Amino acid sequence: MKISRQPTPVTIKIDQKQVENVKCFKYLGSLLTDDGRCTSEIKSRIAMAKAAFSKKKNLFTSKLDLNLRKKLVKCYIWSIALYGAETWTLRAVDQKHLESFEMWCWRRMEKISWTDYVRNEEVLIRVSEQRNILHEIRKRKANWIGHVLRRNCLLKEAIEGKIDGRIEVTRRRGRRRKKMLDDLGDRRGYCHLKEKALDRIKWRNCFERDCGPVVLTDY
Question: Pick from 136, 155, 159, 156: which is nearest to 90 by CA?
Answer without folding.
Answer: 136
